[in-house]
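Hey, resending since the last one bounced:
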Amino acid sequence: MRLIVAITGTTGTALGVRLLQRLREIGSIETHLILSRWPRATLEPEIPYSVGQVRELADVTYGPADQAAPILSGILSGSFLADGMIVIPCSNEALAVVRAGYASDLVTRATDVVIKERRRLVLVTRETPLSAIHLENTLELARLWVTTMPPTPAHYTRPQDIDDVVDNFVGRVLDQFGPEVGPDSAEVPRWAGLPTKSPLSPG
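The structure tokens again:
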């Protein structure tokens, strides 16, 4: 399997880094990373990783202006077969550009081609609150079978720290690409329903 991962300039870079770590742990997935310009400003203040360390987590890395990259020309020609793409985190600016189909850099050009080729595209939108514009963009992309996943915590897992929240959410993102990629229940707890005498049960 081959996946394209893009990290854009919004808060939540830990999500993208953990996703790359998880894909490397799986070992059977070839990762192609596109780093947009702004993560260089948001990465190091949020997590103890440099841009160079993040680049080393991927098999191949591209810059945002590299529209002649093999990843792009190969997709256009059909010689580069990617199973899908994840934009994590995805700024609302990137969301709007993807919806409009305005390929202004390698991130949005790649999403444009992935949508055209009907490959799976997952956008992890990080910013909040959402205006009507953001919601309309999300709705229009949903009609194109694009999956939008805000990083909502799974409270039923009773996370102890931010790492637990990030690990669980990244597992749910990988679930979008099938059981050979998604984690098992030992790694990411699954919802099993409420206990019979749960304090949250009616009555």
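The mean pLDDT is 87.

Sorry for the duplicate.
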